[in-house]
Write a structure and sequence with these properties.
The chain is of the alpha/beta class. It has four helices and 20 strands. It is globular.
């Protein structure tokens, strides 16, 4: 069996395949409904944030898999589904987070995420035909405790950022970041240890 063919013996739904990180086709009706629910919920959050920033966090508690005590996310926010996002206690997320959560995005405790960060879990085939057919998969992103990510940084699929690390503004993080290091650049590289 080729990797981009529907396996008649695999009875999992597209959502189950997506959550497992396996190849799936994203135009599945159940996935589209979940996406629309996330769009509606984030729109409510983004609007409510203007008049009641702290109260708007309650909306995210219903959307995210986890929003730790004392954490705060600023609007605007964009997600694919929201349910695969887990944020530990005491974390601050500034304006403009884009979190494409086709699989889990885990952000630890006491992190500082600056403005306009992108956390991107989806991957697409390099071969043009399956990409044209709509196949995609995902690789999780894990951010440890007490991590600081500078403005405009992009974290790519499958990356783990260790505890106490710092990611420089504008960096494109393509590989795991060791704990207690500073990385910067495109692609991001270790520039010092802490």
């Amino acid at each position: 069996m080729k990797p981009f063919e529907r396996d008649p013996d695999d009875q999992r739904s597209a959502k189950e395949r997506m959550l497992a990180g396996d190849w799936y086709i994203a135009d599945d009706p159940a996935l589209q409904e979940a996406f629309r629910t996330a769009l509606t919920t984030t729109a409510r959050f983004n609007e409510a944030y203007v008049s009641d920033p702290d109260g708007a966090q309650v909306i995210l508690q219903g959307l995210f898999g986890e929003l730790g005590e004392g954490s705060h996310v600023r609007a605007p926010l964009r997600v694919d589904y929201g349910t695969q996002i887990h944020i530990g206690p005491g974390t601050f997320v500034n304006y403009g987070l884009v979190a494409l959560d086709v699989v889990e995005i885990r952000i630890g405790a006491n992190c500082q995420l600056a403005n306009d960060i992108q956390l991107l879990t989806p991957i697409h085939p390099l071969d043009p035909q399956p990409r044209r057919e709509g196949w995609e998969a995902g690789e999780p992103i894990t951010i440890g405790d007490n991590v600081w990510i500078g403005g405009g940084a992009i974290v790519l699929p499958g990356v783990t950022i260790g505890d106490d690390a710092v990611v420089g503004a504008g960096s494109v993080v393509t590989k795991d970041v060791p704990a207690r290091t500073v990385v910067a650049g495109n692609p991001a590289r270790v520039i010092r240890e802490l």
